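Quick one from the shared queue. A colleague (R.T.) flagged Trimethylguanosine synthase as missing a structural entry in our internal table.

Convert sequence to structure tokens.
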Amino acid sequence: MLSIDKPPSHLLLDSPYLKKFWNRRYELFERYDMGIQLDDESWFTTTPECIARHQAKICTCDFLIDAFSGIGGNTIQFALTCGMVLAVDNVYSRLLLLRNNAQIYGVCSKISLICADAAKLLRSLRVSCPARSSHEQGNENPNLLNSDGAKNTEMTNDCSAPEHSSSSALDTPLLQSPISKNCIGSTVVDVVFMSPPWGGPGYTGIVLPPGSSSWNARKRNRWFLEAAEAIEHTKNLEELPSFRAALSAARHLCPRVVTYLPRNSSIGQLLCLSWPIEECGCERCSQTMEICFEEYVLRGRRVALGVYIGRFHDLSQSTV
């Protein structure tokens, strides 16, 4: 937890690469000097405030879920433009930091905190088909209850202490019932935003493009040689923890999903994010979604990509 006016010694000794992030602290939070708190990982995982503000304007809605909230870089900006924001993170201490930071921006009353795995939580909130019986809905949608009827996960108002969620009820699979395969259903969730952890500074990887499974050994070897000489390697999205599972659950839950991803993400993999989801046969997941990319630039340097899946009326392809 850091909220001091000069870089702590461990930024220079234990984690020297964090010094550059300290120098950019006002890009992360313009109100940093008012008591903003971060943990070590948050220095390089928090969305810069100007980018988060831009994303919040596009995602203005009644109810938004921030599936990987961290210490609140995006959550706070969403709370300024949305009616209610559900902030989800699997690290309890980060939610406590988020609560502190939200108080500084005066948006605590519009944020609910929940400590849970993002993919499991989104699956537990999946759409129920109106045509299904109440008995079937009760079996597949446990509403986060344990055996004695008490809630394991509480969505709290006013940024009160977030509750832990460890119930096996969150492990329910996506839409096992064939009755719901032709049903889109309705949902109170307008947008799901996710900024999954990328792996820290220096993240790299080599990703074969779509169609490479048909390459012969000679073509494959030539491609690897050319990729090794590239200025910046491509980030493999398959390496992001829980991202695929969370994205599949989010697309089933609501028609609009936004992801904040590394600047060197594979274009082929990004396009695949809008393709039909094979694991689910419902009408919504079987559709190819609209997709749009945004490139974010700070200090003349590309820092990240925004991927908008679904229809966003205020969105235009742009460089921010």
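Residues 92-105 form the longest helix (14 residues).
The chain has a mean pLDDT of 75.
Added to the table.
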